[in-house]
Write a structure and sequence with these properties.
Blueprint (H helix, E strand, L loop, with lengths): L16 H11 L5 H20 L4 H8 L8 H30 L1 H20 L4 H14 L3 H10 L6 H26 L2 H4 L9 H4 L3 H17 L16 H7 L17 H29 L11 H21 L1 H27 L9 H17 L9 H27 L10 H17 L14
Amino acid sequence: MVEPPPAPAKVYYDGCPGCAMDRKKETRKGVPYKELIFVGIISFASALPITSLFPFLYFMIRDLHVAQREEDIGFYAGFLGASYMVGRGLASVFWGIVADRIGRKPVMAFSVFSVIVFNTLFGLSVKYWMAIATRFLLGALNGFLAPVKAYSIEVCQPEQQALGISIVNTAWGMGVIIGPAIGGYLAQPVKQYPHLFHDNSVFGRFPYLLPCICISFFATLVFISCAWLPETLHKHKGLERAVEMVEGSTTQESTEPPKKSLLKNWPLMSAIITYSVFSLHDTAYVEIFSLWTVSSRKYGGLSFSSKDVGQVLTVAGVSLLVYQLLAYRQVNKILGPIHSTQVSSALSIPIIAAYPFMTHLSGIRLDMPLYIAAMLKSVFAPQEQRGAANGIATTTMSLAKAFAPAGAGIIFSWAQKRQHATFFPGDHMVFLVLNLTEVIGLVLTFKPFLAVPQQYK
């Protein structure tokens, strides 16, 4: 019997941080807690600014005096909400290339530094153009997502890599949940906590600075901790691929048939299209829900404060986290990813349709159905729409998330000007458009629109 050829010896290069990490992984036993804790913290810090503005977005646009009428606030709020995702979508590929050239550590450190600078400047904005510019630059210069996922894989043994990615996603989700709480409870501190903050203080002049300062302070601590973060990129003075070629190359690679173009792979592309529609819907929902709850009752809103809407969004986010930890795997195991998405989407439609009727309620009669509806809507958001080709999926998702706030703001502003229309007056029209988007996503989960791979049948 012919014995298989011995595995090629691993080659390490002195002075290469990637080789140093590989050596460390060979001798280390157990999970790299230090590196993964940092991965979680940086993911959390980078996620906080994304949703922290939604509870006070309506009030900020009002105070910037860019909208001539109250009904126009939603129009300008939509573009401000979209500016971050536009910046991130335009620069995400660039930061991935940079991280592959100069290293993961400098890109992640620079991303955290950009949060410190531009999130603080956003809180200091006194003009609409300044708020737009700082949010755009915050998204464009915060290129941590691709490097931090690569880093979480490179510090782990193969059997631990799924844990590394899950820590990134969990920490990101926690940041998205806690962000609205920070924005809601700390915005307009002079109005919310007059016994602690005076009108003549810096927070009286800049009522939205406090939540931004708190996030920036946390990001500063994370930035300082980057000094102790080891690099993982291989740097071999022109031989960047040497280790990978020695470790993983085989003669079979040259004989593999050419792969079919991703754009011609309909099962993949149909999943990405469906994913993008749901991403558009979910992002537009958060923006519309925030604008609707804080807008005046005379325009079909609930006249909530920033603290009220931040609290609702936080409770909804926590309910989603609890559902994912305790129930999602069982539901997904019983129904499967496709059917669970279809059921969740179908159940979301009556919840969204019920929102505009809640304007006739008040007190506990409003709080109970609103919180229950928000929690259920958060839980029913489709959980299993991650595309196999991350590059295309991330790009289309970013475009959808960039378009959603602007489109939602325009529709919200238009709807508030038609409070006495016969056909779906006021905010009834806003939630109708949201439901139509949900219906489109639901339809796309059925044949022939969605080509289901054999393993999901």
